[in-house]
Here is the input.
Amino acid sequence: MDSLHSSVLLRAGTADEIPAIIWLGSRLHQAIDQSALSAIDDLPLPMARLDASVSQSLFPQTATGTDSSAALRGHRDGAFFAHKFVCTGVEHTGQSLTINLHDQAAELSGTLNLQLHHSSGVLTISTTIVNDGSSVFQIDWLASASVPLPLDHTECLYLHGRWGLEFQTERQSINRGQLLLENTRGRTSHEHYPGIVTGVSNFSEQHGSVIAAHLAWSGSHRTIVEKLSDGRVGLQSGLALDSGELRLQQGEAFTTPALHITAAVGMNQASQAMHQYVRSEILPDWTRRPRPVHANSWEALYFDHDIDKLRELIDAAAALGTERFVLDDGWFNLRRADNAGLGDWLVDTGVYPDGLHPVVEHTRKAGLQFGLWFEPEMINPDSDLYRAHPEWVLQLEPYITPLARFQLTLNLDIPEVADYLFNHISALVTEYSIDYIKWDHNRDLVLAGDGVKSRMHKQASSCYRLMARLNTAHPGLEIESCASGGARADWGILKHTGRVWTSDSIDAIDRVAIQRGYSIFNPPEIMGAHIGHEEAHLTARNLCIHTRAIVALQGQLGLEVDARNVTTEEADVLRHYINLYKNNRDWISESTTWRIDSAYKNLSCSGLVSGDQSRSWWFAIATASLSTTSPGKLIPTGLDAKKIYNVSVASLNVNDLEKMSKHVPTWLTEGATVSGELLMTVGLTLPVMPVQTALLVEITA
Here is the structure.
């Protein structure tokens, strides 16, 4: 199969052998001679092994004697614990390939579904298994995909983290044996993102062969990178299952979430392919419209929902140029703190005697859209809903489920629960003409059962269905995925949402790494990035307003700062950056992301370039003290070498930088007009950048 710039080449050794991928990479242009291909790709057979070689097929299985991890592990009450599927046919239509499988003895059939996206070159693979037998077949593990990796891929990079510090990158050598990245927390998680990059030694943003893979799943997941004793390397990924969780009755089928893979030179190229695919194939259509500037009530007021204070906050935020006001946690029954009320989605008339109408009407009068915070999947034991229906929570009798943030999790797989949530949310959306929902998910799942059996994987699927119902019933509604920050930012949830709250930390210095890691798999325009208070609420770090604003401009801009209390000077600065965002957001929504390799550990450089290469923003941020007296150069990339560009500073902090040295580069104060070729070769000499300072450079044709 061929895309615009890449090819996927598969080979099967015999008529019924399951095909294997033998090339995933740049476009092949010559016709394929199958006999010649078989000759050059013929496996050797070492001593002290099986008498026949076993290829790395798309579906490795134990009964063939494969050394690699089996794609399927399951049984019929302990019997048929091993499987030997054969290929019964291949259907190839355009960019799609369906490989039909059958195991007559185990009474199982299935399909491997491959789709190559033409423009981005992203390959999507999923697996379906059908129980053709009369007895129950239990699946313990079913990989979405099993793909070989190039032999020279000796390193991998993946994302880890914690609450308030998500999307941190970790590098590791690919050694003999298995590297297992597993999350059993029931949501995407802060700790283990379902994405990985493998590559040659010392691969970087701009250099080296890489393969990037992302599992589009919002629940527990597992990724395996495995190097066999014969030197071959493979990647396998899929959802992680609880014991006895997935049991197929006769005639039942199960299809895995999709694994998305792309091959590239440098991580930038891989990210650009991923972003293109997400924009065209995953995200809701409304994400292509200009993304409004948010003002969120949380860090300004927390649970203080005094109506007069809210009116003042709305007016102050509107005066700065924001376009959407979001009323966060605390508006519903009993919700004066985070220990009660979840599940009772009725407006607290003790705080809002006239409902939310006074706040909503004031928001509309100020010219803003209105958004509201929900956490639909959760419930507090101190709630009317729990007192009426304790059986609606995920649980495993007789154990007591540990609380997290004083809450339990509703079992969305129960139809009455899904209907209850849909009806209550839908009624509020209709009554108040809500434009936007901030959909939160503030705890990991523990003992996620129906009282007896696990329902872990069904929770994510049920959430998708609930969101889809709301999207269908309210076509204009926008939903943000928040999970105590960035714990649910995968492509499975993005089919139903179009904004991600990347982290509960708005500390701009921590956000540099958070947003950079996030950008490996996700485009910038759906990343919630807010300007917080001078003293960051989660870290107590003090940062200047320019650094806070510049970092926030890397995503969809918003304010968490209390707009009522900013000085006149701060208000002017905020208006500048808000207007800057508004004047550029159209091209940013389709921009190409470039993360620049830096010679200095504490200097982060990146850029966004418009599709026609006529406009770009470049960010240089000193996250800590540099080891040299000057930070060297910012060397843009992705411009048109033949175009002439105007270079200027878009941020308002040149005077602050001038104070830190005897001389600053001339272009910083006077601008420059220079060719794209010179910019991408000679680059821009940066000024002295003290700790925690940032610079935003605008380069326009």
Summary: The domain at 294-376+414-441+465-590 is CATH 3.20.20.70 (TIM Barrel). The mean pLDDT is 95.
